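Subject: complex prediction, re-run

Hi both,

The earlier run crashed halfway through, so I resubmitted it with identical inputs.
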Amino acid sequence: MNWIDTIVQGVLLGGLYALFASGLSLVFGIMRLVNLAHGDLIVLGAYLILLIVSLLGLSPFVAAMVALPLMFALGYGLQKFVLNRVLGEDILPPLLVTFGISIVVQNALLQGASADTQRLPAGDIGVASLNLGIVNIGVLPLLTFGSAVGVILILNHVFYRTALGRAFRATSDDATTASLMGIRPRAVFAQATGIAMMIVTIAALYLGLRASFDPAVGPARLIYAFEAVIIGGLGSLWGTLAGGVIIGLAQTIGAAINPEWQILAGHVAFLLVLLVKPRGLFPRAFD
Amino acid sequence: MALLSTHGLTAHYGQFQALFGVDVTLDAGECVAIIGANGAGKTTLMRSISGVLRNESKSIRYRDLPIGSLAADEVMQRGIAMVPEGRRLFPSLTVEENLLIGAQVRKGQGPWTLEAIYELFPILKERRKNAGTALSGGQQQMVAIGRALMSNPDVLLCDEISLGLAPVVIRDIYNALPRIRAGDAAMIIVEQDIGQALKVADRVYCMMEGRVTLTGTPQALSREAIHNAYFGAAA
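This time it finished cleanly. Structure:
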């Protein structure tokens, strides 16, 4: 077994999990909303990209660009017309509503696209790799990881260097006081969910390029995303990347020891981190 | 015509009624103090005017328009800014970001800019990169006041700006009030410190158990009348 190869593959796989998790982390960080439909929305994004690819004959990467504004609009509308109505002191109503959305999305996809597995056409890039001597790195996993780092860099820039990010952080700290500054928390929430859905689209692109998907695979993606967010520390974006990498590493190392241990090893790593650092690796100081 | 007025304002927290028909007026450029003991309804009055608590539309009028049912963000955008009780700085924002967010949505015409706030409270310039909540209570209060001023409001609501602060810090903050008033904003100051309130206000309202029990200019009100209105005649 080549341990260096295993570790590199694990880190790169972590990029995919970080992409799954970033949107969840963003939404949770700003409005303390746990979106149980997150995994299903990633799958919905993959089907949307597939639809655009089939209808317009575009490459999946271009199709994802077309899907980005559509998914932003979907997220904005979902927050404005559904989730904002149930956000409040009680965390149960939004949890139940997102659970309901999860079921609706899964069944709508089953109805519209059948239970057959699908895959986005990756073309040559799907099998291309870089030979670095001791390890071979797949171009697609490398692109995935690069996209995750890029997404987190952009999100960090938006959060800490722009007026919109200032409004995000202020609303996350104290929505009532933010409204005293003239900020409309519900509009901020809708923008945040819109942006989260753009990240979901990027995650969906790589999900569809790297593996086959069907309407039922969403909940498993949700669990990986959850674990990455919680390992990283709720609401911390770089922590989310670290969380994704830890799960990716655990899964590839687990699989290298025994292929049956892949999924289990990720969950065990999650539990171990929780045991040692219950608030995650990079918790916010003032939560 | 008053710049801002409440008309038979009532407020409830669930079954509990906190305000019973409160009538308060504020003229342009005026400073009005609301005094009263804990639980008198002062903060509830501020929360109602600022839109944090929603009321019947006609119960609050501003520039002769009903604003009682507007949300806090809409009230602020019309030029009414608030320094909330307990400062309520944003912990994840630096001092400078806390100030900037005050003018993010509304940047009215007036003298208040970041530099003007730093001139008013020079210590904030030194601390501008610190987290807002890393400051002392007095400095946090300065940030909260500066944050509200940044939008150049026409009406500034100050809720308990001296609460929990050392006397020397309270003096510093009250020393800044004349310069704040020179910026043309009308003010409503909620205070438990009667002495400070009487010094800066043009008119005073005393509240007890959700009702206005006394009103007048500081010069016209006797100590005994204020005592009776503040604690009740039997006290």
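Residues 3-276 of chain A form a domain with the ABC transporter involved in vitamin B12 uptake, BtuC fold (CATH 1.10.3470).

- K.
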